[in-house]
Design goal:
about 240 residues; alpha/beta; Rossmann fold; seven-stranded parallel beta sheet; about 15% strand
């Protein structure tokens, strides 16, 4: 049992990276709350990891309030927020997307992070401690056709993280942008990306695994509280990005 367990919220915890992060932190003895919209999937992960499930849509301010109220009532503090929830939406050129598709992608990948940071940032500021980890994407740093809307949202997450760190640093709150690339998650299928390399079983085996992300987040929250790693980018060696 961890002598100094942290209270952690992980959004998008019903599978993929979120489940891996929840598993690693729970196994280390931390108190983990996972959020997601699918009750059954969320409960499966909670049962497998020992995390506590809270059904919530991160694009909903009211749902965020419910999550915060639940955690604060049960634990009295929030030590770590991992803004992991996100999705590519429909991958297509901007002019081929509907207004509704664009708004949905921005809301899930950027607005939801802002909603969480506003609420949790206020709590951490009053605690004079805390750690916010915002999961971005390599798409924030490079450009590929069809990914413009998703890339814009994730680039916004990176800029938000830096601004948030500047605002909260003097209160002892740390902020990190964790930027993965190809992962062995449901991302490819959910975005209907025909022929994406991560759908190939051999490539998928060499991609970033959910457990890999779990270990990375566990490492970050275990570092001394007087140190902050502003950015961490993780690439699987199977992926070629030229030029870097």
């Amino acid at each position: 049992m961890n002598k100094n367990p942290l209270t952690v919220i992980v959004t998008g915890g019903s599978g993929g990276f979120g489940a891996g992060i929840a598993g690693a932190l729970s196994q280390a003895g931390h108190h983990v709350y996972i959020t997601g919209r699918n009750h059954d999937k969320l409960l499966q992960v909670a049962n497998a990891t020992g995390a506590t499930s809270v059904v919530a849509d991160v694009t909903s301010p009211a749902d965020w309030d419910c999550v915060i109220d639940t955690v604060m009532t049960e634990r009295g503090c929030i030590d770590v927020l991992v803004n992991n929830a996100g999705a590519g939406g429909r991958i297509a050129p901007v002019d081929e997307q509907t207004d509704e598709e664009i708004i949905e992608t921005i809301n899930l990948n950027l607005t939801a992070v802002l909603l969480g940071c506003r609420r949790v940032g206020k709590i951490m500021k009053s605690q004079h401690s805390g750690y916010v980890i915002n999961v971005s994407s390599i798409c924030a740093q490079y450009s590929w056709s069809g990914w413009s809307v998703y890339s814009a949202a994730k680039a916004g997450v990176e800029r938000l993280s830096k601004g948030l760190y500047a605002e909260l640093r003097e209160s002892g709150v740390r902020v990190t942008t964790l930027t993965p690339s190809w992962g062995a998650t449901e991302f490819g299928e959910a975005s209907s990306i025909a022929g994406h390399p991560t759908l190939d079983p051999e490539v998928r085996r060499q991609c970033i695994q959910p457990d890999d992300m779990g270990r990375l987040v566990l490492h970050l929250v275990s570092t001394p509280s007087h140190l902050n790693q502003l950015e961490l980018t993780v690439l699987p060696t199977v992926q070629d990005i030229s030029p870097l």
